């Protein structure tokens, strides 16, 4: 089995595992994830957060996003055009509308975000390895984005989707900070 085939099979397993998390357990875990990220030094120091809209059972971090806006931090969501992903800022979560793949996205005229070393990127995905490996959805959008991203990445994931390691390919980026509802794991990315 090739690495691509392994990853494809693992994506199916992880998606099924995540969709099987009971709603009450998921709500408790989501709150714990928000609290853990809010306490993270990278969140406290960030002036810009690159975030995602939760889909298909991903952690719901909306309370964290509202907190960031209340603290005066800029908030930006991804927009994918072709194989490129850019982030665009919003002043309110109410401006988000269904975009590509049906995922809530900023309006077409939303300003482009310009990440710096003080930018925190929260990445979506299906699973994480304790060694910093990450399993995304297979499009490579975040891996390409991370090639030039100057800030800090945090990958919020449910503890039940944490493995010792995950299959990787040459283009896959490791993440330095993985946060679960039970706390943070740090790695050298």
Q: Please, could you describe this protein's structure?
A:
The protein has 189 residues and is an alpha/beta fold. Helices cover 29% and strands 24% of the residues. Helix 2 (23-39) runs parallel beside helix 4 (62-70). The chain starts with a helix and ends with a strand. The model has no long low-confidence stretch (mean pLDDT 93).
Helix vs. strand class: alpha/beta
The mean pLDDT is 93
Largest sheet: 7 strands, mixed
Q: Record the strand order, biggest sheet.
A: 3-2-1-6-9-11-12
N-to-C SSE string, H for helix and E for strand = HHHEHEEEEEEEHEEEE
Backbone shape: globular
Provide the CATH topology.
Rossmann fold
Q: What is the CATH architecture term?
A: 3-Layer(aba) Sandwich
Number of helices, where a helix is a run of at least 4 consecutive DSSP H or I residues: 5
Beta-strand portion reads 15-25%
């Amino acid at each position: 089995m090739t690495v691509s085939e392994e990853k494809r099979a693992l994506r199916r397993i992880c998606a099924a595992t995540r969709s099987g998390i009971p709603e009450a357990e998921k709500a408790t875990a989501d709150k714990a994830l928000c609290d853990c990220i809010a306490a993270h030094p990278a969140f406290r120091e960030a002036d810009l957060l690159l975030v995602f809209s939760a889909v298909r059972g991903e952690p719901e971090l909306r309370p964290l996003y509202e907190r960031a806006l209340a603290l005066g931090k800029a908030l930006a969501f991804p927009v994918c055009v072709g194989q490129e992903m850019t982030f665009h800022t919003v002043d309110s979560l109410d401006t988000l509308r269904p975009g590509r793949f049906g995922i809530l996205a900023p309006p077409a005229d939303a300003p482009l975000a310009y990440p710096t070393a003080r930018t925190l990127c929260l990445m979506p995905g299906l699973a994480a390895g304790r060694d910093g490996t990450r399993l995304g959805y297979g499009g490579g959008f975040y891996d390409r984005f991370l090639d030039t991203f100057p800030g800090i990445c945090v990958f919020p994931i449910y503890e039940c989707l944490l493995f010792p390691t995950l299959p990787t390919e040459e283009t896959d980026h490791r993440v330095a900070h993985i946060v679960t509802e039970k706390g943070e794991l740090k790695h050298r990315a």
